[in-house]
């Protein structure tokens, strides 16, 4: 997917007033950089993009998002989930053959 954000937005996002970071709602941050809400929400849910949660609202620091979009921490393709060990080991006989389950 090609990002539609402009270089001007990246420069503007890095400027904060008196050291206070610029924070916007998720939807505002997404539209500020020309992205969909769904994409930004996915990055937040995957843990790739840090956020501030206040109840059901999600706030994004524009400076951090600008760094994120410049590639300093872009997400990679999701890896296939690794199987979790459930602790179940099939029973085997002393000869190494599988035994039928007992119900």
Features:
103 residues; single chain
Briefly summarize what is shown.
It is built from four helices and three strands. The protein has helices at residues 7-13, 26-32, 37-45, 62-72, and strands spanning 23-25, 52-54, 57-61. It has a three-stranded antiparallel sheet.
General description of the model:
The protein is 33% helix and 11% strand. Strands 1-3-2 form a 3-stranded antiparallel β-sheet. It has helices at 7-13, 26-32, 37-45, 62-72; strands at residues 23-25, 52-54, 57-61. The chain is elongated and about 75 Å long. By secondary structure, the chain is α+β, with helices and mostly antiparallel strands. It contains 4 helices and 3 strands.
Annotate the secondary structure layout.
Blueprint: H1 7-13, E1 23-25, H2 26-32, H3 37-45, E2 52-54, E3 57-61, H4 62-72
Antiparallel strand pairs: 1-3, 2-3
**Helix proportion range:** 25-40%
Structural class: alpha+beta
Strand content: 5-15%
Largest sheet: 3 strands, antiparallel
Order of helices and strands: HEHHEEH
Q: What general outline do the C-alpha atoms trace?
A: elongated
Strand order of the largest sheet: 1-3-2
How many strand elements?
3
pLDDT < 50 runs, ≥5 residues: none
Q: What's the mean pLDDT score?
A: 75
Radius of gyration: 23 Å
Distance between the termini: 52 Å
Number of helices: 4
């Amino acid at each position: 997917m090609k990002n539609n954000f402009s270089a001007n937005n990246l420069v503007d996002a890095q400027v904060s007033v008196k050291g206070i970071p610029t924070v916007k709602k998720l939807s505002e941050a997404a539209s500020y950089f020309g992205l969909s809400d769904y994409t930004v929400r996915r990055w937040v849910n995957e843990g790739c993009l840090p956020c501030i949660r206040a109840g059901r609202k999600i706030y994004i620091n524009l400076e951090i998002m600008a760094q994120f979009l410049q590639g300093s921490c872009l997400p990679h393709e999701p890896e296939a989930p690794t199987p979790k060990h459930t602790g179940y080991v099939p029973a085997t006989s002393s000869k190494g053959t599988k035994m039928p389950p007992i119900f």
